[in-house]
Design brief:
The protein is mostly helical and about 140 residues long. The chain has 2 domains: about 70 residues, no CATH class; about 60 residues, no CATH class. Helices cover about 50% and strands about 5% of the residues. The protein is built from 5 helices and 2 strands, in the order βαβαααα. The protein has a two-stranded parallel ribbon. It is elongated, with a radius of gyration of 21 Å.
């Protein structure tokens, strides 16, 4: 029976050290001697990560972090003394987001992403490319 291991590619081609080690561990079983009949293959999914959407998502994460900082009155940010009302915090956050994320980026994210990074941003294009690669790997392992 053929098996395909989809090696995690969340975050794209430049993983941190921990993520890189995890990816290698995921791919390792395909190289084990007991699978030399080629019934197991590992498909690396990092090449299918949408780098543009990932960069936009990182900006939205900055906005979310700023929202947290405003609510917790972090001394390094605008609401250091806690004097901002909820409405003032919302307005500050709205302006912060507008400076950080262009209208084009917001539109692209709305069209191309539907989930968080750990789900490949819910990007249909990414999932289609991965599915095609998995199918091709299955065809190779069954010959």
């Amino acid at each position: 029976m053929p098996f395909v291991i989809g090696v995690m590619g969340v975050g794209g081609q430049h993983p941190d050290a921990g993520n890189a080690a995890f990816r290698e561990a995921m791919a390792a079983p395909a190289a084990l001697p007991e699978f030399q009949e080629k019934n197991v293959s590992a498909v690396r999914t990092a090449p299918f990560w949408d780098e543009t959407l990932g960069a936009i998502q990182a900006k939205y994460e900055q906005v979310r972090q700023m929202e947290y900082e405003l609510k917790t009155k972090n001394r390094r940010f605008a609401n250091a003394d806690g004097s901002m009302s909820s409405e003032q915090q919302r307005e500050y956050l709205k302006q912060f987001e507008a400076k950080l994320i262009s209208l084009e980026e917001a539109a692209l994210r709305k069209r191309g992403a539907s989930n968080a990074g750990y789900h490949y941003l819910g990007c249909a294009k990414t999932f289609a490319l991965m599915g095609k690669a998995f199918a091709e790997a299955l065809l190779t392992t069954t010959r």
